[in-house]
Amino acid sequence: AAVFDQLTNSLEAAWSKLRKEDVLTRENIKEPMQDVRRALLEADVSLPVVRRFVKSVSEKAVGTGVIRGVRPDQQLIKVVNDELVSLMGGEMVGLEFSKTKGTPTVILMAGLQGVGKTTACGKLALYCKKKSKSCMMVATDVYRPAAIDQLVTLGKQVDVPVFEAGNQIRPAEIAKRGLAEAKKKGVEVVIVDTAGRLQVDRGMMDELKQIKQVVNATEVLLVVDAMTGQEAAKLVASFNLEVGITGAILTKLDGDSRGGAALSVKEVSGKPIKFVGEGEGMNALEPFYPNRMASRILG
Ligand code: GDP
What sequence ranges are listed for the domain SRP54-type proteins GTP-binding (predicted)? Predict the structure, then answer.
C-alpha cells in the first residue's frame, strides 16, 4: 500500500457523510471532523497537532457559507487541503546556496544510524550535479569504516568525488580539510556525511556542532525516517534545539509508513522538510512540495 492510502480512504469516508447536506454547519461537520481526527491519529500525527488542525478546519469550514455550485463535502475538502498545505509549511523551501563568491555551499548531513543518511548524501550529490553544480562529498564517520566505503561507493555511482582521511583524525578536522580541498578545486557544493548513532547522545550533538562551526555550514539537514512517524518530528525539533538545523530530509516515504512524519515535522519543529526520499536508488529524491503532498493525501 502507498503511504497515504489508509489516510486517503478514511478521509473519503468522512466527506461522504456530507453528501446530503446543503451547507456546512457546526452540527453536520462534527462527525466528519471526528473521522478526520481519527484518520490523522492513525497516520501517527501527534495529538496536539491533530487538535489544532481539527479546530482550525472546523472554524474555517463553518464560516464558508453557501458557495453556488460547490457541494458542502467539496467545500470541506478545500478547507482541509488548504490547512494541510499550511500545516506542511505552505511553500516549498529549496536548498540554500552560498552567496559568497569562492565560498562553496556546505551541506552538513545529520541523522541517526540507519535512517538513510549516507544514501541521502549520494542522492543530494546527484541532485546538485543535475543542477549543474560541481560537487564533492566528505566522509567523517570515523567510527564505522564501512561507512566511509559506502560513501566512496555511492560517489562512484553518481560520479562525484569523495574526500576521506581514514578514521584516525577527528571528524571536524576531516571536514575542515575536505572543505579546503573543495575550495582549492573550485567545487561549488560540499556535502558532509557525519556519523549517526543508535540514539541521540551528547557526543553526537557536540560533534555535529563542532563540524557545523568549522565548515560554517550553509545547510544543516537532519535525515529522518518516515517509518518513525511523530518520533521523526520530535527528533527534528531536538536536533534543531541542540545543533541548529535548516531543514529535514524525510526518507523511506515509499515504505510502510503512514505518513504522519510528513504532516508533523514543520508544525512540531518549526523547520521545513526540504526533500523526501522514496526509494533506495540515487534518483529517488524529490523536493518537498506541501501542495503536491496535500493532493496525494486527498487522493
Ligand atoms: P545511514 O546509516 O543513515 O547512513 O543509512 P543508509 O544510507 O546506509 O541507509 C540504510 C538503508 O536504508 C539502506 O539499505 C538504504 O538503501 C535504505 N534507504 C535509504 N533511503 C531510502 C528510501 O528513501 N527508501 C527506501 N525504501 N530505502 C531507503
Answer: 272-285
Amino acid at the residue 140: T
Cell numbers for 46, please give them: 501527534
Query: What amino acid occupies position 20?
Result: K
- Residues 6+ away with beta carbon under 8 Å from 73: 15, 16, 18, 19, 21
Q: Rounded to whole angstroms, how far apart are CA atoms 162 and 148?
A: 9
Q: What does the pLDDT read at residue 1? A: 63
Ligand 1: list residues with CB < 6 Å.
111, 113-119, 196, 251-252, 254-255, 277-280, 284
Rg for the chain, CA atoms, rounded: 21
Nearest alpha carbon, ligand 1 atom 28:
280
Structure confidence by residue, pLDDT tens digits, 191-209: 999 999 888 899 999 999 9
Q: Identify which of 119, 225, 228 to mutate to test ligand 1's pocket (most ligand atoms within 8 A of the CB).
A: 119
Ligand 1 atom nearest to CA at 278: 23
CA of 153 to the centre of ligand 1 (A): 14
Contact 10, 38 (CB under 8 A): yes
Residue with cell 514543520: 266
Tens of pLDDT, residue by residue over 56-101, are 999 999 987 777 888 999 999 999 999 999 999 999 999 999 998 8
Distance 117 CA to ligand 1 centre (A): 7
Q: Model's pTM, two decimal places?
A: 0.96
